[in-house]
Amino acid sequence: MNGRSALQLVDIKASYGNGLVLRGVTFALAAGEMAAIIGPNGSGKTTLLRVASGVLRPREGYVELHGHALGTLGRREVARQMAVVPQELYVPFALTAAEIVLMGRTPHGGGSTAEDRCKVAAAMDATGTRALAERVFNELSGGERQRVLIAMALAQEPRLLLLDEPTVHLDISHQMEVLELVRRLNRERGLTVLATMHDLNLAALYFERLLLLEGGRASVDGPPAMVLSEEHVRRAFGASVQVQPHPTAAAPQIVVIPRPPASA
């Protein structure tokens, strides 16, 4: 992390219709940082990511991308700086994995030039998906599809990567595979990463900074050991937990304490 601001959200209020979801969130992400947004269902995690990507315009507040107001940048310019990996990508046609990754070149012209093919090959090599190139995307496993989507994002050559629940539909092995890939890209390429995460223990293991949302507001922001205290987790999620050190990593781990059975 070098201190330059990659993404800044200032006093964000956002809504769908008349329902206010975000209620004045301020958050800045430095270049090269890797952070996760956590919080209970309905707290505004995905909404904050949608505002950060420019998909949803805030009711109040503003977003800056690398020092420029997001609203003043064209869609192609934004796509050259920022890539978004969704939870799922619906593909109505039998496109191959390589054709999906090539879609990431759209901000740069979207053709099939030698440079485009080179960038696609490099992105697939970086994500370990070259062997999947000719397979139909819809026929891949969940973990394979997620790695192909990350390859598509890398083909954009972004400086900032946004991921919406990148592990939500994966088994534990593929969850670790995807998060280790993202962490490697962050460390080796200096790629700035912001993700929404549902699993608190995985968030603590793989992200250096967590932002806890409660009721559309930023509640706690900092390293996992500070954010994932028993008090914070109990208050935000309404669950009894015990927080203990991870046996092999410098990260907190949460153990859920079951509620006692209701009396007959």
CATH class bucket of the largest domain:
Alpha Beta
What is the count of structural domains? 2
Helix/strand structural class: alpha/beta
| Named CATH topology of the largest domain | Rossmann fold
User: Which descriptor suits the 3D outline?
Assistant: globular
Radius of gyration, Cα only, in angstroms?
Answer: 19 Å
CATH architecture of the largest domain: 3-Layer(aba) Sandwich
Number of strands: 12
Low-confidence blocks of residues: none
H/E element sequence = EEEHEEHEHHHEHEHEEHHEE
Please state the average pLDDT score: 93
* Widest β-sheet, arrangement of strands: 6-7-8-3-9-10
Measured distance between first and last alpha carbons:
56 Å
Supply the CATH superfamily name of the largest domain: P-loop containing nucleotide triphosphate hydrolases
Helical percentage: 25-40%
Structure, explained:
With 264 residues, this protein is of the alpha/beta class. It has two domains: 1-66 and 164-227, P-loop containing nucleotide triphosphate hydrolases (Rossmann fold); 77-158, 3-Layer(aba) Sandwich (Rossmann fold). The protein contains nine helices and twelve strands. It has a six-stranded mixed sheet, sandwiched between helices. A hairpin with a 2-residue loop joins strand 1 (5-16) and strand 2. The longest helix has 18 residues, at 172-189. The chain is globular and about 65 Å long. The protein starts with a strand and ends in an 8-residue tail after the last strand.
Offer a quick outline of the entry.
By secondary structure, the protein is of the alpha/beta class.
